[in-house]
């Protein structure tokens, strides 16, 4: 098997056409078809299915396509490393919005200082979306909240975060002097993410343990818009302290909630060590190191390191 065959196959799948792929690659359609046939013979599997409009991958072809993309990316990065005297390449990292507000800039600075030739691609999205992107090899590593250790990821426990009742400066929380319990919040109007979010599940479970339900007046699946609604006085929210990182100090007030089990755990999940490129391995080390330093300095509100 040759890398040329892998490149040919990936291009054909991406374009869905043998003719278009041949034109882009600068080879004859017949020669391209022969290379794909040799690849299928070597693998003893049909990779492409011919249709009236072009070609599409079979089940085996789709599985091979994903791994071929990964192999080609690593090969390209290996060439870059060999051509330069220091670590180079590209690495893709995903962070949820609240974590990106705390870690995004410090991590980027640390990577630029340590590995100036590594190109970073930062993706800010919801934890569930990042999980799916990691599973499909669209990103190399991510900070995730809900990680099942049976998944084929390398997982490093990072921090636990306490949750707070957050309201605008003008809002009046129940028993605003001192800490609150969930029982104090049974009638407090809450603006929360929808049921599909792990954070919402944590909050629902915590209320359920005291035999109550949260008084949800609105569901907003976007941290920026959710905090805007809270800032406008439309209700309160329950979020980790990191949710306030990107907002002007003094615009919001965070009240501690006394329930000790109302915490969220964050993990760094990545492709396995065998699959990660040298740049990816370096980025994972820097990400964990940055998170620990930020937490130790008290810059990640409500976060505690997990040993």
UniProtKB/TrEMBL annotation:
Keywords: Activator, DNA-binding, Transcription, Transcription regulation. The keyword Lyase does not apply. GO terms for molecular function: DNA binding; DNA-binding transcription factor activity. InterPro entries: LysR_HTH_N (IPR000847), LysR_subst-bd (IPR005119), WH-like_DNA-bd_sf (IPR036388), WH_DNA-bd_sf (IPR036390). Residues 1-58 form the HTH lysR-type domain. GO terms for biological process: regulation of DNA-templated transcription initiation. Belongs to the LysR transcriptional regulatory family. This is HTH-type transcriptional regulator CynR. It comes from Pandoraea cepalis.
């Amino acid at each position: 098997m040759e890398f040329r065959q892998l490149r040919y196959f990936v291009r054909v799948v991406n374009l869905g056409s043998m003719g278009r792929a041949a034109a882009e690659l600068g080879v004859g359609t017949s020669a391209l078809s022969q290379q794909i046939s040799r690849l299928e013979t070597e693998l003893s599997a049909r990779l492409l299915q011919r249709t009236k409009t072009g070609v599409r991958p079979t089940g085996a072809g789709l599985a091979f396509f994903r791994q071929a993309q990964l192999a080609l990316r690593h090969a390209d990065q290996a060439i870059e490393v060999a051509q330069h005297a220091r670590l180079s390449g590209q690495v893709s990292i995903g962070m949820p919005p609240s974590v990106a507000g705390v870690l995004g800039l410090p991590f980027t600075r640390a990577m630029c200082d340590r590995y100036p030739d590594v190109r970073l691609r930062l993706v800010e999205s919801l934890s569930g979306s990042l999980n799916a992107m990691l599973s499909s090899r669209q990103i190399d590593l991510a900070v995730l909240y809900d990680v099942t250790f049976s998944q084929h990821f390398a997982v490093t426990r990072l921090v636990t975060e306490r949750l707070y009742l957050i309201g605008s400066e003008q809002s009046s929380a129940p028993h605003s002097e001192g800490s609150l319990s969930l029982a104090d919040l049974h009638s407090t109007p809450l603006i929360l993410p929808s049921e599909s979010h792990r954070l919402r599940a944590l909050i629902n479970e915590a209320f359920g343990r005291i035999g109550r339900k949260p008084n949800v007046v609105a569901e907003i699946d976007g941290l920026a818009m959710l905090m805007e609604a809270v800032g406008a006085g439309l209700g309160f929210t329950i979020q980790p302290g990191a949710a306030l990182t990107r907002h002007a100090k003094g615009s919001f007030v965070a009240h501690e909630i006394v329930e000790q089990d109302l915490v969220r755990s964050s993990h760094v999940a990545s492709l396995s060590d065998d699959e990660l490129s040298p740049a990816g391995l370096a980025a994972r080390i820097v990400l964990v190191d940055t998170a620990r330093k930020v937490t130790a300095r008290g810059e990640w509100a409500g976060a505690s390191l997990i040993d």
